[in-house]
């Protein structure tokens, strides 16, 4: 009887193990079929006539197709369409957001068409932000072909190293190709004087050139085109730079563009690469989203935290960039949890870098479930809940004015003001002891400890501090 029970138990264990094994195999297979990003090659066929650019974009999928791809059109684009390689329409719009549909498993390519308007300037013209941005894809190479019907005198320029120009009876035909996402485009009717190196092409629209040779930015891979002209305002991008003079500051811009090309990300997270370059080179970003993130990180981290943040990015040899990875690094550097980069990628507006801790807070070694955050290099605790946790009575005597007392001493706190009243005497400070952050009210931990004679400790932050030392 015991042998039968033992055999039955062994069989059940084997069956359970088999079920778990196949479930795991199914999970890993599903995970393999749904990568975070799909690698693609892209080609653009652009016809320019008058003020209108007619664009046909072909996306060649090189790996498994994601279930959903959203698309953000250039601000002035119109006449959208999308067809897959079966001839099915593949553009839908849900909740105000354009999405690609009919993305079946064996899909090889899709063709997107759209138009955009830009007033033609025959002397010179910069065309930027002219292509849509798709989620979940990483562009490996880009081909750009321009058929010019209107501007027959002059030349189109892109940032890539490879380019060609054929002049025909009724049109001019241009071809450019390179690594990464699409380059900005520049047209000039002036003849250009060229000076090139292995990584930089310098183009001048005048002949009084003082520089004897092209600028050498160091041992970087990649390629950047720099146009020196007085015709338009300066412009900086990963592949094409426009400057009015070839001054020494240009070297840092060249390094930034080439360093940008060493990193990999999805196209929608490309601004994170510019952010990283700005941190590494200590230079202000040029695009609004990366500039905002740069500002928040510079204001939110101490100098030592910033040095550690920079060092961790330098030590990352994968050169792969995504929001989750940056949030993890930020968490290890500060000891707080971060969703700043993830939320910045998902959202359309600018958000503040508010780092949080989900672990209980210790006040005089007693555990309390209070919100505990880091903001602008200050550790803050939930208010007035933190005061109530001490067993004190605190009242909001009028909007954003709080009153409490301790051992016969009275306090009046004013939200978002740089002072408080202690025993009816005004004490001015350099910072706001009580402030609103993310819609909630917090008190500076330093002033909370000092005024209420307590010791505050956060388990998670303290543990991570130990790990960093």
Structure description:
The protein is of the alpha+beta class and 469 residues long. The protein has 4 domains: 35-189, Immunoglobulin-like (Sandwich), CATH 2.60.40; 190-262, no CATH class; 267-346, no CATH class; 355-468, Copper amine oxidase-like, N-terminal domain (Copper Amine Oxidase, Chain A, domain 1), CATH 3.30.457. The strands form 7 sheets. The chain has a 7-stranded mixed sheet with strand order 4-7-2-1-10-13-12, with no helix packed on it. Strand 1 and strand 2 form a beta hairpin. Helix 2 crosses helix 3 and helix 3 crosses helix 4. The longest helix is centred in the first third of the chain and has 32 residues, at 2-33. The N and C termini lie far apart (61 Å). The model is unreliable at 1-8, 10-35 and 463-467 (pLDDT under 50).
Termini Cα gap: 61 Å
Number of strands: 32
Quote the average pLDDT: 88
Instruction: Identify the overall geometry.
Output: elongated
Report the biggest beta sheet as strand number plus sense, adding barrel if it closes: 7 strands, mixed
Number of helices, counting only DSSP H or I runs of 4 residues or more: 10
**Integer count of domains:** 4
Q: What is the CATH C-level name of the largest domain?
A: Mainly Beta
Rg (CA only)? 29 Å
CATH topology of the largest domain: Immunoglobulin-like
Oligomer: single chain
The helical percent reads 25-40%
Low-confidence stretches: 1-8, 10-35, 463-467
